[in-house]
Amino acid sequence: MKKLFLCAVCAIFLFACSNGFGGQPKIDASSIESITTSLNAIRASLPEEKKEAFEGALIATIFYAVMTDLGNSTAGQKEKTEEEVLQIYKKYLNGKTADQIIVQAEELQEKPGLNK
């Protein structure tokens, strides 16, 4: 009986952690396809007034990632592979909600050397 109860508690915990209790959807950056799918799910879950803020924050975050991480390659180096680009996206996007992306973009815009 204790094992059954423990299994039930674990199942509820896992369900809650996977946004089962109304949590915001998160970006899954495990593959390019999963990024696209999770971004579409986030967009669909947002009210209209928040979609614009999210889109702007997403663009600002990706721009920052490109300028810092991807932009570090010089003309003599090979281009980044899809896996290398995916690692950079994971660094900035993976596991984050729309609200977290918006806050992150605001923080990135405050960094020295970035034009506002």
Automatic annotation (TrEMBL):
Keyword Signal: yes
InterPro entries referenced in this protein's UniProt entry, alphabetically: DUF6694
Signal peptide: 1-22
Pfam family, one: DUF6694
Origin superkingdom: Bacteria
The entry's keywords: Signal
Protein's name according to its UniProt entry: Lipoprotein
Organism: Endomicrobium proavitum
Lineage: Bacteria, Pseudomonadati, Elusimicrobiota, Endomicrobiia, Endomicrobiales
